[in-house]
Write a structure and sequence with these properties.
This protein is mainly alpha-helical and about 550 residues long. The chain contains 18 helices and 15 strands. Strands 9-12-13 form a 3-stranded mixed beta sheet, with no helix packed on it. Strands 1-5 form a two-stranded parallel ribbon.
């Protein structure tokens, strides 16, 4: 376990109690900590069984955060990232017809989230009859289940639109499924979170670190209202309802921005004052499931370059996600005042393979020689003149030389704690909710309720923290500059690589326009219907009516 005085939430596997809706599901949860097997159906009617059920429900969120599927859904096919050289999922960036109803990521996420939802349903329904458990503890466990159920349905609603809104426990296989409406789903999500908030721990961090707390639920509910406000279920008061929720998170729990932006995702600092809720991973291969794998996807091919070989410190470079020109030249244009370019991207590599080499990408010199620890690659972020590059004893990677293999690597998820340089299953916690996001969402809600002064105050709080020392005033914006475009850019300066961009572009209604403008690989194929993902074909097939197969009760999204 992690070295801290805090007690950690331990996920559980509880056999088949978290059965999928249509029974063509495995009984094996993807991730587990405490294994409890075999068990009977009455196990969750006991205090320990109820608690283990909640712990098992947490494991479903590991199918989203820090995984390849969660990142492919949210990083690929946006304005700020496009595909690198490797990987078999490029079609999720390019929106070709390969992105179809048999997409493995779609099916896996659907099955895991519904498995988690059904476990939550069981906890909520069975809790009233459980005896021998303190009432306050029981209320908290039910509140956690409602938080998790709302979380899963919120992600599903954003990705797929109407889904099967199932709020009672499914004990046996069934084909009785139908698509709900987005409005009904938002109503259920809001009800769950509203009911959960009073019974969750009213503090920044749970005594079992990793459990949902009151500020986590308020943060999520505020985001639900912010997203609903631009959906087909929108109401006139959505933005105004979001504002006090975000304000509570900021003001009432002692959660605060770290002084240094670069420290938020620094390895070893995953438990910090800015974190509202994080997904728990471990270094134990028996309990870490698939692990937090975000560390591999954002890295350039440094390991084939002169003076370098793969190591744990620099990471295992999958070369999946490559920042677009828009990201580098517009989002991170200001590097004189704003520290976030420097603290977000790797700009220096130090030799771990000493020797003399021919150059690979920098023709300003013919040969380079490195001792251990010498700089081998430097990315200045601008077109350094050839004459200046020639004077450097290392290779200089300038923007005109970026390609699908070599480009600025994201720092946020690098995991040097892996046991060896090939290990895929990372062990760092994944920060899902943090306070800078709360500030930015509050500013957005205030902008949409005509409170420009409030929006400026909150966005400037984030921008001042991001400033280089002494440049805080230069980072401040005025009410005249306060508009949606500022928020669109500011969110990515702060939150790039944190599984939010695709969902943000969708809720702003600009996914198609922005991808066509800024993602050359995706621009030829993206269409309006891509604002929804395909329903997995397995779900359609399982709902077929009649002995001869009949017609599906569960319809597909248009365009797929």
């Amino acid at each position: 376990m992690k070295s801290t005085n805090n007690k950690y939430l331990r996920y559980a596997k509880i056999g088949c109690l978290s059965i999928g809706l249509l029974a063509a599901q495995s009984c094996q949860d993807v991730l587990k900590e405490t294994v409890i097997s075999p068990i009977g159906n009455d196990y969750m009617n006991s205090p320990k069984g109820l608690s283990d059920g909640v712990n098992a429900a947490y494991s479903a969120v590991r199918s989203w955060y820090g995984t390849e599927r969660g990142n492919n859904f949210t990083i690929f096919g946006t304005d700020t990232y496009t595909n690198g050289a490797d990987g078999s999922w490029k079609f999720m960036n390019t929106y070709t017809t390969d992105f179809d109803t048999r997409n493995g990521h779609v099916q896996e996420l659907w099955d895991e989230f519904y498995r988690g939802i059904n476990t939550c349903n069981a906890v909520i329904e069975r809790a009233p009859s459980v005896t021998g458990m303190a009432d306050a503890t029981k209320k908290q466990r039910v509140a956690e289940a409602k938080f998790l159920r709302a979380h899963n349905y919120f992600i599903l609603t954003q990705l797929f639109g109407g889904v099967d809104l199932r709020l009672t426990e499914t004990l046996v296989p069934t084909k009785d499924v139908k698509r709900s409406t987005v409005a009904a789903q938002y109503a259920a999500i809001i009800k769950d979170l509203t009911e959960a908030i009073p019974d969750l721990e009213a503090k920044a961090k749970s005594s079992d670190y990793g459990r949902a707390t009151r500020p986590a639920a308020e943060h999520l509910l505020g985001k639900v209202y912010l997203t609903k406000a631009t959906s087909e279920a929108k109401a006139a008061d959505d933005y105004s309802k979001a504002v006090p929720l975000f304000q509570n998170v900021i003001s009432n729990y002692g959660i605060k921005l770290l002084p240094d932006f670069g420290a938020v995702h620094r390895q070893g600092n995953e438990i910090n004052d800015e974190v509202i809720w994080s997904i728990q991973y471990t270094r134990d291969p028996l309990t870490n499931g698939g692990g937090n794998n975000a560390h591999v996807f954002f890295l350039m091919e440094y390991d084939t370059q002169p003076g370098m070989q793969r190591d744990t410190e620099n990471g295992r470079p999958f070369k999946r996600y490559r920042p677009t020109d828009y990201t580098l030249n517009v989002i991170f244009k200001d590097r004189q005042n704003d520290s976030r370019y420097k603290k977000t991207f790797v700009d220096t590599f130090l030799s771990n393979r000493p020797g003399a080499y021919n150059i690979s990408f920098d023709p300003s010199k013919a040969r380079v020689t490195f001792a251990q620890g010498d700089t081998t690659i430097f990315l200045p972020g601008f077109e350094m003149p050839v004459a200046e590059r020639a004077r450097k004893p290392y290779q200089v990677l300038v923007p005109s030389r970026y390609d699908e293999r070599i480009f600025p690597s994201l720092r946020k998820h690098i995991d040097g704690g892996r046991v060896d340089r090939t290990q895929f299953e990372g062990g760092r916690d994944y920060i899902a909710f943090r306070l800078a996001d709360t500030y930015l969402m509050l500013a957005e809600a205030q902008l949409n309720t005509a409170n420009l002064a409030g929006a400026v105050t909150n966005i400037n709080t984030v921008r001042r923290r991001a400033a280089w020392s002494g440049r805080e005033s230069a980072m401040e914006v005025t009410t005249a500059q306060m508009n949606l475009e500022l928020i669109i850019e500011e969110r990515e300066r702060e939150l790039i690589g944190e599984q939010m961009r695709w969902l943000d572009l969708k809720r702003w209604g600009i996914l198609l326009e922005r991808v066509k403008r800024f993602n050359a690989q995706a621009a030829p194929n993206i269409k309006d219907f891509h604002a929804l993902r395909p329903i997995p074909q397995t779900q359609i097939d399982r709902s077929l009516s009649g002995s001869d197969g009949g017609s599906p009760q569960f319809t597909q999204n248009p365009g797929y």
